[in-house]
Structure to design on (740 residues):
């Protein structure tokens, strides 16, 4: 089976599907053309890049064929981007998986020998294996995993919980932005990555957040604030769009944010610009931090970070002219070996100024009913996150020795030692949804571990050889146009869907998880296998009128009751589950110093730690994974080929000085090596987007262009267990070739 697509064939296919015709011999198009010709309008949610909440899509269909899509204007998030607009290519991509398949050749064979099977047979094989593995090796030996796809997660939580396994993990526990969330929870006592500026915001701080990774309305809100006179400070190691519109751009070298913040806080303290009263009443550990930052003079800060001393001072002074709000929606600051502490440091900037839950400051939002959102905007009654957080479950966690603080704080295990778990017989079976082995450093080691499992399956939209070749079963997942669950969630607003029927025998992920649950556990725990019934359960639990009423209201987006947001909720006990004033940290206050971290031998303060040194041979830092507007991870490449017109190979950004020194020009091909692997081939863009000494790249290209092989597995942030994707020293050499 191949994932390469003939572009002509694909475009022809879309035209055929659009016309409702049926291409002989093609299972896909036989199903795609519906019988009824009545035009109708549907409503779904884009899942291209997994912003949560996601963007709404209105589509026009005939029979079961989607003909045209547009912005769902009534949806709070209603501006589709290049990725969203090309999702129809993905829906009608002739390479889609349409039927369950099982392998017939032994693992390791070049050809797995896939044959089509029925859902019944697939479920029987999987369920029998789940039960037998649990019986023989205990529940933890069955691992549940979801990739970046966040939509399937609540249902898989439920399956893992009722099956009784704590070995439940996702791409977020491998390395997304949960490392940043860990910092948020340590400082604030709850996740909070800031938000867009409000009408009263005077200064807005953009912390390592790339414009291209955000929904389009994020940018609109920032430009509107700028027009109102709000000042912008951007802290980003590259000169991004967000840096170019900033009043002050602070450009620290990668992984040096803790030093930059120490320098800025020193200025705020020395010049008496910080909010003394707030710090005294609502924070913990300030005196220790004050003593720590003493050595970070502007000059020393410049030496450590590369940010000019004068800018450190000016940045601090401008930030003090608040109220100030911030955004830290980034994943990138958590991807170096001091990631959690660098992020904790950045989050001290709103704390020291007391811009916490204030008018014009950083708003602390809340879910419709509770204090915080859980499980990617989905309700804890469905995900049953509380079960994973009970002491008896925590005691069984496979990751508790490797990342003890993470294991205490997080309900998902850190699976970065998966190869060792398989080697030691701790994990025997793998149940996956959207599994991509190439998110890991040195992915070949994870692929080899998959091949050694007793049994493994995954559900996906497409067949991915790197990840699927050594599975036992591959299941075809329904796409966003074809599923009911989950609904979109925007604060108290809930957008239910009106989808088309799945192509072939695709099934939605919630249904797959629930139907398996019905076999290995009790149907009453899994809504009899019905995703819509599960959504209805959550909506009613939130006090809403239920799925049918919400569907009848479409295209309007319905509301569930919600408490007034209000300001300074920490004064009235709304930030803690026990209703006491303060924050949900161990100290009850906002933590400059965290006893929770100290308990496990990590520094209590968010201290600076140098990155891996560059060497004579590996003399450039590699930023392996910044986002681009037309790329999502590895999947948009072959799935949505319109986007390949924009870029069709791995390109790296190099500063003009660095390129010239190596005799490299725009468009040249180069090879990249690190102490851990390579060569990797890429085409060069010469640009001031990156400073001298830094190479910027996207990850997610495959084969010879797979940058993950450059990342060493052992270089990690000890607090989160995350890999240092953005830290590797590399060499870049010109190649004598002109094509990929
Ligand atoms: N188009 C698109 N959008 C996406 C995605 C996608 O693949 N494509 N993926 C989605 C997902 S899963 C995620 S997690 C988010 C990620 O969203 P982001 O984290 O916002 O995206 P990145 O481009 O990885 O990084 C943000 C910025 O951090 C800067 N940076 C890197 N290291 C450092 C550092 O050490 N210090 C400082 N100060 N700055 C640093 C980079 O220069 C970059 O501009 O995007 C989501 N949105
Ligand atoms: N070097 C480096 N590595 C990184 C990062 C980086 O910046 N640099 N970023 C990290 C981050 S933030 C992330 S989020 C991860 C990316 O995480 P990945 O897990 O790679 O994310 P995707 O590529 O979105 O999806 C993985 C697979 O899921 C399938 N899929 C998509 N949607 C669905 C669905 O709804 N159901 C099912 N069953 N399958 C689906 C896709 O076809 C694909 O095969 O990579 C991480 N790794
Ligand atoms: Mo992510």
């Amino acid at each position: 089976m191949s994932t390469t697509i003939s572009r002509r064939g694909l475009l022809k296919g879309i035209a055929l599907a659009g016309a409702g015709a049926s291409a002989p011999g093609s299972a896909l198009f036989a199903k795609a053309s519906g019988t009824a010709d009545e035009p109708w309008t549907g409503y779904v949610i884009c899942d291209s890049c997994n912003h949560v909440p996601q963007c709404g899509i209105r589509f026009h269909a005939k029979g079961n064929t989607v003909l045209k899509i547009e912005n769902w204007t009534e949806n709070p998030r209603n501006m589709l981007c290049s990725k969203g607009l090309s999702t129809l290519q993905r829906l009608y991509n002739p390479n889609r998986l349409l039927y369950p398949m099982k392998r017939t050749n032994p693992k390791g064979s070049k050809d797995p020998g896939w044959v089509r099977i029925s859902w019944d047979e697939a479920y029987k094989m999987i369920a029998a294996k789940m039960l037998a593995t649990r019986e023989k090796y205990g529940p933890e030996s069955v691992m549940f995993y979801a990739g970046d796809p966040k939509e399937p997660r609540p249902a898989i939580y439920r399956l893992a919980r009722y099956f009784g396994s704590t070995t439940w993990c996702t791409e977020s526990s491998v390395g997304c932005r949960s490392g940043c969330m860990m910092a948020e929870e340590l400082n604030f006592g709850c996740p909070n990555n800031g938000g867009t500026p409000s009408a009263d915001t005077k200064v807005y701080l953009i912390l390592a957040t790339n414009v291209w990774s955000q929904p389009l309305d994020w940018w609109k809100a920032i430009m509107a604030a700028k027009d109102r006179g709000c000042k912008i400070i951007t802290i980003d190691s590259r000169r991004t769009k967000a840096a170019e519109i900033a009043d002050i751009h602070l450009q620290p070298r990668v992984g040096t944010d803790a030093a930059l913040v120490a320098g800025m806080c020193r200025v705020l303290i020395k010049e008496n610009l910080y909010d003394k009263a707030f710090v005294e009443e609502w924070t913990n550990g300030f005196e220790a931090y004050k003593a720590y930052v003493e050595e970070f003079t502007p000059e020393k800060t410049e030496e450590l970070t590369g940010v000019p001393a004068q800018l450190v001072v000016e940045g601090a002074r401008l930030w003090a002219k608040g109220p100030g709000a911030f955004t830290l929606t980034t994943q990138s600051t958590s991807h170096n070996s001091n990631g959690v502490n660098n992020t904790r440091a950045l989050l001290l900037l709103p704390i020291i100024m007391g811009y916490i839950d204030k008018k014009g400051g950083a708003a602390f939002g809340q879910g419709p009913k509770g204090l915080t959102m859980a499980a990617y905007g989905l309700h804890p009654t469905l995900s049953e996150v509380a079960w994973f957080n009970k002491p008896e479950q925590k005691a069984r966690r496979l990751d508790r020795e490797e990342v003890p603080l993470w294991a205490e704080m997080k309900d998902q295990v850190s699976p970065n030692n998966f190869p060792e778990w398989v080697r030691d017989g701790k994990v025997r079976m793998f149940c996956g949804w959207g599994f991509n082995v190439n998110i890991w450093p040195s992915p070949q080691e994870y692929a080899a571990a998959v091949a050694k499992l007793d049994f493994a399956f995954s559900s996906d939209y497409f067949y991915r050889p790197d990840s699927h070749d050594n599975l036992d079963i591959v299941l075809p997942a329904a796409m966003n146009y074809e599923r009911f669950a989950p609904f979109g969630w925007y604060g108290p607003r809930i957008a239910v869907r009106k989808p088309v029927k799945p192509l072939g025998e695709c099934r939605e992920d919630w249904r797959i998880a629930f139907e398996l649950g019905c076999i290995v556990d009790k149907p009453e725990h899994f809504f009899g296998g019905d995703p819509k019934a599960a959504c209805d359960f959550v909506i009613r639990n939130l006090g809403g009128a239920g799925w049918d009423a919400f569907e009848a209201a479409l295209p309007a987006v319905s509301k569930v009751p919600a408490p007034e947001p209000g300001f300074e909720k920490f004064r009235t006990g709304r930030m803690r589950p026990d209703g006491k004033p303060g924050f949900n940290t161990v100290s009850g206050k906002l933590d400059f110093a965290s006893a929770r971290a100290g308990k496990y031998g990590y520094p209590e303060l968010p201290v600076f730690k140098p990155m891996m040194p560059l060497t004579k041979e590996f003399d450039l830092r590699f930023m392996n994974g910044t986002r681009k507007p037309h790329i999502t991870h590895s999947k948009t490449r072959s799935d949505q080929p319109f986007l390949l017109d924009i870029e069709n190979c791995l390109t790296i950004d190099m500063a003009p000085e660095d390129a010239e020194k190596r005799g490299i020009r725009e468009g040249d091909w180069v090879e990249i090596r690190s102490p851990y692997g390579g060569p990797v081939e890429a085409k060069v863009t010469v640009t001031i987007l990156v400073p001298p000494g830094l190479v910027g790249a996207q990850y997610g290209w495959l084969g010879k262009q797979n940058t993950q092989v450059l990342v060493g597995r052992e270089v990690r942030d000890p607090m989160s267990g995350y890999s240092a994707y953005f830290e590797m020293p590399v060499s870049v050499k010109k190649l004598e070739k002109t094509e990929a």
